[in-house]
Amino acid sequence: MRVLIPALLIMAAVALFALGAWLFPGVMDWAVSQQRAFQNEMAGAVCAIRSGATGGWAALLLAAGAYGVVHAAGPGHGKYLIGGVGMATSAPASKMIVLAVASSLAQALWAVIIVYGGFFVFQLSVDRMTVLAEDWLAPASYVAIGTVGVILMVRGARSIMQPRQASHDHSICNHAHGPDLEQVARLTSYREAAALVASIAIRPCTGAIFLLVIAWQLDIKLAGFVAVVVMGLGTATLTSGVAISSVALRGMALFTGEKAGVTAVAIPTLQVVAGVLVLWVSLALLSISLL
User: To pair with 151 at 20 to 30 A between CA atoms, which of 42, 45, 86, 93?
Assistant: First the structure.
Protein backbone atom coordinates (compact mmCIF):
# COMPACT_ATOMS: atom_id res chain seq x y z
CA MET A 1 0.00 0.00 0.00
CA ARG A 2 2.92 2.33 0.76
CA VAL A 3 4.01 2.04 -2.88
CA LEU A 4 0.49 1.88 -4.34
CA ILE A 5 -0.66 5.32 -3.17
CA PRO A 6 2.30 7.25 -4.69
CA ALA A 7 1.89 5.24 -7.89
CA LEU A 8 -1.82 6.07 -8.10
CA LEU A 9 -1.13 9.76 -7.44
CA ILE A 10 1.51 9.87 -10.15
CA MET A 11 -0.80 8.08 -12.60
CA ALA A 12 -3.63 10.52 -11.83
CA ALA A 13 -1.33 13.51 -12.31
CA VAL A 14 -0.03 12.13 -15.61
CA ALA A 15 -3.59 11.48 -16.80
CA LEU A 16 -4.67 15.02 -15.95
CA PHE A 17 -1.57 16.42 -17.62
CA ALA A 18 -2.22 14.33 -20.76
CA LEU A 19 -5.81 15.56 -20.86
CA GLY A 20 -4.58 19.13 -20.51
CA ALA A 21 -2.04 18.62 -23.28
CA TRP A 22 -4.79 17.24 -25.55
CA LEU A 23 -7.03 20.24 -24.87
CA PHE A 24 -4.10 22.69 -24.83
CA PRO A 25 -3.96 23.73 -28.54
CA GLY A 26 -7.63 24.67 -28.73
CA VAL A 27 -7.59 26.56 -25.45
CA MET A 28 -4.39 28.39 -26.40
CA ASP A 29 -5.72 29.40 -29.83
CA TRP A 30 -8.89 30.73 -28.22
CA ALA A 31 -6.94 32.63 -25.55
CA VAL A 32 -4.54 34.21 -28.07
CA SER A 33 -7.38 35.34 -30.34
CA GLN A 34 -9.26 36.82 -27.39
CA GLN A 35 -6.14 38.63 -26.20
CA ARG A 36 -5.75 40.25 -29.61
CA ALA A 37 -9.38 41.29 -29.61
CA PHE A 38 -9.11 42.87 -26.17
CA GLN A 39 -5.85 44.58 -27.15
CA ASN A 40 -7.75 46.27 -29.97
CA GLU A 41 -10.48 47.23 -27.50
CA MET A 42 -7.90 48.72 -25.13
CA ALA A 43 -6.24 50.68 -27.94
CA GLY A 44 -9.58 52.13 -28.98
CA ALA A 45 -10.50 52.98 -25.38
CA VAL A 46 -7.17 54.74 -24.80
CA CYS A 47 -7.74 56.87 -27.91
CA ALA A 48 -11.25 57.64 -26.63
CA ILE A 49 -9.85 58.83 -23.30
CA ARG A 50 -7.28 60.98 -25.09
CA SER A 51 -10.02 62.63 -27.15
CA GLY A 52 -12.26 63.11 -24.10
CA ALA A 53 -15.00 60.80 -25.32
CA THR A 54 -17.61 59.72 -22.78
CA GLY A 55 -17.23 56.18 -21.51
CA GLY A 56 -13.57 55.87 -22.44
CA TRP A 57 -12.43 55.01 -18.91
CA ALA A 58 -15.15 52.39 -18.42
CA ALA A 59 -14.36 50.76 -21.76
CA LEU A 60 -10.63 50.68 -20.98
CA LEU A 61 -11.01 49.12 -17.54
CA LEU A 62 -13.50 46.50 -18.74
CA ALA A 63 -11.25 45.54 -21.65
CA ALA A 64 -8.16 45.46 -19.42
CA GLY A 65 -9.82 43.25 -16.82
CA ALA A 66 -11.10 40.87 -19.49
CA TYR A 67 -7.66 40.77 -21.10
CA GLY A 68 -6.16 39.80 -17.73
CA VAL A 69 -8.51 36.82 -17.42
CA VAL A 70 -7.88 35.44 -20.93
CA HIS A 71 -4.17 36.15 -20.58
CA ALA A 72 -4.08 33.94 -17.49
CA ALA A 73 -5.89 31.21 -19.44
CA GLY A 74 -3.36 31.35 -22.26
CA PRO A 75 0.29 30.36 -22.54
CA GLY A 76 2.11 31.29 -19.37
CA HIS A 77 3.74 30.06 -16.22
CA GLY A 78 2.14 31.77 -13.22
CA LYS A 79 -0.86 29.47 -12.98
CA TYR A 80 1.35 26.39 -13.24
CA LEU A 81 3.54 27.53 -10.36
CA ILE A 82 0.60 28.58 -8.19
CA GLY A 83 -1.12 25.27 -8.90
CA GLY A 84 2.01 23.25 -8.23
CA VAL A 85 2.79 24.99 -4.96
CA GLY A 86 -0.85 24.77 -3.85
CA MET A 87 -0.87 21.04 -4.50
CA ALA A 88 2.53 20.37 -2.91
CA THR A 89 2.43 22.46 0.27
CA SER A 90 0.18 22.71 3.31
CA ALA A 91 -0.61 26.38 2.63
CA PRO A 92 -4.36 27.00 3.03
CA ALA A 93 -6.50 28.24 0.16
CA SER A 94 -6.56 31.75 1.63
CA LYS A 95 -2.76 31.97 1.58
CA MET A 96 -2.59 30.63 -1.97
CA ILE A 97 -5.14 33.23 -3.09
CA VAL A 98 -3.01 35.95 -1.47
CA LEU A 99 0.02 34.63 -3.36
CA ALA A 100 -1.95 34.56 -6.62
CA VAL A 101 -3.15 38.16 -6.19
CA ALA A 102 0.26 39.37 -5.00
CA SER A 103 2.08 37.80 -7.95
CA SER A 104 -0.40 39.20 -10.49
CA LEU A 105 -0.25 42.72 -9.04
CA ALA A 106 3.54 42.55 -8.72
CA GLN A 107 3.74 41.57 -12.39
CA ALA A 108 1.54 44.55 -13.30
CA LEU A 109 3.59 47.00 -11.23
CA TRP A 110 6.84 45.61 -12.65
CA ALA A 111 5.48 46.31 -16.15
CA VAL A 112 4.82 49.92 -15.11
CA ILE A 113 8.36 50.26 -13.74
CA ILE A 114 9.91 48.84 -16.90
CA VAL A 115 7.87 50.88 -19.38
CA TYR A 116 7.55 54.21 -17.61
CA GLY A 117 10.99 53.92 -16.03
CA GLY A 118 12.49 52.80 -19.33
CA PHE A 119 11.03 55.77 -21.18
CA PHE A 120 11.67 58.37 -18.46
CA VAL A 121 15.03 57.30 -17.00
CA PHE A 122 16.80 55.27 -19.66
CA GLN A 123 15.16 56.69 -22.80
CA LEU A 124 14.59 53.18 -24.13
CA SER A 125 12.90 52.69 -27.47
CA VAL A 126 9.86 50.43 -27.81
CA ASP A 127 11.94 47.83 -29.65
CA ARG A 128 14.64 47.74 -26.95
CA MET A 129 11.98 47.48 -24.25
CA THR A 130 10.39 44.52 -26.03
CA VAL A 131 13.79 42.83 -26.37
CA LEU A 132 14.43 43.34 -22.64
CA ALA A 133 11.10 41.78 -21.70
CA GLU A 134 11.07 38.86 -24.13
CA ASP A 135 14.76 37.99 -24.59
CA TRP A 136 16.04 38.56 -21.06
CA LEU A 137 13.31 38.75 -18.42
CA ALA A 138 11.18 35.91 -19.81
CA PRO A 139 14.03 33.34 -19.77
CA ALA A 140 15.09 34.53 -16.31
CA SER A 141 11.55 33.96 -15.07
CA TYR A 142 11.38 30.47 -16.55
CA VAL A 143 14.69 29.55 -14.91
CA ALA A 144 13.36 30.80 -11.56
CA ILE A 145 10.17 28.76 -12.02
CA GLY A 146 12.22 25.68 -12.87
CA THR A 147 14.29 26.17 -9.72
CA VAL A 148 11.13 26.12 -7.62
CA GLY A 149 10.15 22.88 -9.33
CA VAL A 150 13.51 21.31 -8.49
CA ILE A 151 13.16 22.40 -4.85
CA LEU A 152 9.73 20.75 -4.63
CA MET A 153 11.12 17.56 -6.17
CA VAL A 154 14.08 17.41 -3.77
CA ARG A 155 11.95 18.09 -0.69
CA GLY A 156 9.46 15.44 -1.68
CA ALA A 157 12.13 12.84 -2.43
CA ARG A 158 13.89 13.48 0.88
CA SER A 159 10.63 13.20 2.81
CA ILE A 160 9.77 9.90 1.10
CA MET A 161 13.18 8.40 1.89
CA GLN A 162 13.52 9.57 5.50
CA PRO A 163 10.92 7.24 7.05
CA ARG A 164 12.61 4.27 5.37
CA GLN A 165 15.92 5.09 7.01
CA ALA A 166 14.64 4.08 10.45
CA SER A 167 15.39 0.39 10.89
CA HIS A 168 14.76 -0.18 14.59
CA ASP A 169 11.50 -1.34 16.16
CA HIS A 170 8.99 1.54 16.19
CA SER A 171 6.89 -0.16 18.84
CA ILE A 172 9.43 0.38 21.63
CA CYS A 173 10.05 4.10 21.19
CA ASN A 174 7.86 7.18 21.02
CA HIS A 175 9.80 9.70 18.99
CA ALA A 176 8.99 10.63 15.39
CA HIS A 177 10.30 8.49 12.53
CA GLY A 178 10.37 10.91 9.62
CA PRO A 179 8.72 14.30 9.13
CA ASP A 180 5.12 15.05 9.95
CA LEU A 181 2.75 16.80 7.54
CA GLU A 182 3.86 20.32 8.43
CA GLN A 183 7.54 19.47 8.23
CA VAL A 184 7.33 17.95 4.77
CA ALA A 185 4.76 20.23 3.19
CA ARG A 186 4.70 23.76 4.55
CA LEU A 187 5.54 26.93 2.65
CA THR A 188 8.23 27.71 5.18
CA SER A 189 8.74 31.46 5.21
CA TYR A 190 7.79 34.85 3.88
CA ARG A 191 11.10 34.79 2.04
CA GLU A 192 9.98 31.72 0.10
CA ALA A 193 6.62 33.35 -0.63
CA ALA A 194 8.42 36.45 -1.89
CA ALA A 195 10.61 34.28 -4.11
CA LEU A 196 7.51 32.66 -5.62
CA VAL A 197 5.93 36.04 -6.31
CA ALA A 198 9.16 37.39 -7.81
CA SER A 199 9.64 34.38 -10.09
CA ILE A 200 6.23 35.07 -11.64
CA ALA A 201 6.40 38.86 -11.62
CA ILE A 202 9.84 39.17 -13.21
CA ARG A 203 8.34 38.62 -16.68
CA PRO A 204 5.98 41.51 -17.45
CA CYS A 205 2.79 40.81 -19.36
CA THR A 206 3.07 41.64 -23.07
CA GLY A 207 -0.41 43.17 -23.07
CA ALA A 208 0.53 45.42 -20.15
CA ILE A 209 3.60 46.66 -22.01
CA PHE A 210 1.48 47.26 -25.12
CA LEU A 211 -1.05 49.31 -23.15
CA LEU A 212 1.52 51.30 -21.19
CA VAL A 213 3.46 52.21 -24.34
CA ILE A 214 0.31 53.60 -25.96
CA ALA A 215 -0.66 55.44 -22.76
CA TRP A 216 2.82 57.00 -22.57
CA GLN A 217 2.79 58.08 -26.19
CA LEU A 218 -0.67 59.66 -25.84
CA ASP A 219 0.31 61.27 -22.49
CA ILE A 220 -2.40 59.59 -20.44
CA LYS A 221 -0.05 57.78 -18.08
CA LEU A 222 -2.53 57.53 -15.18
CA ALA A 223 -5.05 55.72 -17.37
CA GLY A 224 -2.37 53.24 -18.40
CA PHE A 225 -1.32 52.62 -14.80
CA VAL A 226 -4.88 52.07 -13.51
CA ALA A 227 -5.76 49.81 -16.44
CA VAL A 228 -2.68 47.64 -15.92
CA VAL A 229 -3.55 47.20 -12.23
CA VAL A 230 -7.07 46.13 -13.24
CA MET A 231 -5.49 43.78 -15.78
CA GLY A 232 -3.48 42.24 -12.93
CA LEU A 233 -6.66 41.75 -10.91
CA GLY A 234 -8.21 39.99 -13.91
CA THR A 235 -5.24 37.65 -14.07
CA ALA A 236 -5.49 37.08 -10.33
CA THR A 237 -9.13 36.02 -10.74
CA LEU A 238 -8.20 32.97 -12.80
CA THR A 239 -4.99 32.11 -10.93
CA SER A 240 -6.93 32.24 -7.66
CA GLY A 241 -9.29 29.65 -9.11
CA VAL A 242 -6.28 27.51 -9.96
CA ALA A 243 -5.01 27.95 -6.40
CA ILE A 244 -8.33 26.83 -4.90
CA SER A 245 -8.48 23.83 -7.24
CA SER A 246 -4.95 22.75 -6.35
CA VAL A 247 -5.71 22.95 -2.63
CA ALA A 248 -8.84 20.85 -3.21
CA LEU A 249 -6.80 18.26 -5.10
CA ARG A 250 -4.30 18.15 -2.26
CA GLY A 251 -7.17 17.64 0.19
CA MET A 252 -8.41 14.68 -1.84
CA ALA A 253 -4.92 13.17 -1.80
CA LEU A 254 -4.66 13.70 1.96
CA PHE A 255 -8.04 12.07 2.53
CA THR A 256 -6.99 9.08 0.44
CA GLY A 257 -3.67 8.90 2.27
CA GLU A 258 -5.34 9.04 5.69
CA LYS A 259 -7.72 6.23 4.76
CA ALA A 260 -4.77 4.15 3.63
CA GLY A 261 -2.56 5.20 6.55
CA VAL A 262 0.16 6.63 4.27
CA THR A 263 -0.26 10.40 4.64
CA ALA A 264 3.47 10.87 5.23
CA VAL A 265 4.10 9.35 1.78
CA ALA A 266 1.16 10.89 -0.09
CA ILE A 267 2.15 14.52 0.49
CA PRO A 268 5.84 14.11 -0.46
CA THR A 269 4.72 12.24 -3.57
CA LEU A 270 2.53 15.20 -4.49
CA GLN A 271 5.57 17.41 -4.02
CA VAL A 272 7.60 15.30 -6.43
CA VAL A 273 4.79 15.19 -9.00
CA ALA A 274 4.17 18.94 -8.75
CA GLY A 275 7.89 19.66 -8.97
CA VAL A 276 8.26 17.53 -12.10
CA LEU A 277 5.32 19.22 -13.81
CA VAL A 278 6.48 22.73 -12.87
CA LEU A 279 9.99 21.95 -14.08
CA TRP A 280 8.67 20.46 -17.32
CA VAL A 281 6.52 23.52 -18.08
CA SER A 282 9.35 25.92 -17.27
CA LEU A 283 11.79 24.05 -19.52
CA ALA A 284 9.23 23.94 -22.34
CA LEU A 285 8.62 27.69 -22.10
CA LEU A 286 12.35 28.36 -21.83
CA SER A 287 13.09 26.36 -24.96
CA ILE A 288 10.40 28.26 -26.87
CA SER A 289 11.72 31.64 -25.71
CA LEU A 290 15.27 30.76 -26.76
CA LEU A 291 14.35 29.63 -30.27
Answer: 93
